[in-house]
Write a structure and sequence with these properties.
Layout: H1 3-18, H2 22-35, H3 40-52, H4 56-68, H5 72-84, H6 88-97, H7 103-115
């Protein structure tokens, strides 16, 4: 399965989360994982579903393999999870590790960094 299709399916899972349909989001993530086991898109789709129900630790656990390989998306979503849990110092430390150069990731990093009251992150983009 190509990366474009995986990304589109992950985006559909995100939309399901926006409508609070976590069951549907998890089904999509499960399908993604069946077709592309351990893919970035499947991992992030599961993590966003976990974040939607407030299970920060489960989201961080899902994202850990991506973060450990310095995957920009994995790091950015890990930072989001840490931010949502109020762990702002940890969030800032992760944001500093996110490699720049991908406009989507750079936008997410900027949004997280700006919403951290009293915290600002400097990094090379």
């Amino acid at each position: 399965m190509g990366g474009g299709l995986r990304r589109s399916l992950a985006e559909v899972a995100f939309l399901a989360c926006i409508s609070n349909d976590v069951v549907r989001a998890r089904r999509i993530a499960k399908g993604l994982n069946a077709l592309a086991p351990g893919s970035r898109e499947a991992v992030i789709a599961y993590a966003v579903a976990d974040l939607t129900v407030g299970d920060i630790e489960a989201a961080l656990e899902q994202l850990r393999p991506l973060s450990e390989t310095n995957d920009a998306y994995g790091l950015a979503f890990s930072a989001l999870a840490l931010h949502l849990s109020g762990r702002l110092s940890e969030c800032d430390a992760v944001l500093r590790r996110v490699p720049g150069g991908d406009p989507d990731v750079d936008g997410l990093v900027a949004a997280i960094g700006k919403s951290s009251t009293g915290h600002s992150v400097e990094r090379d983009i």
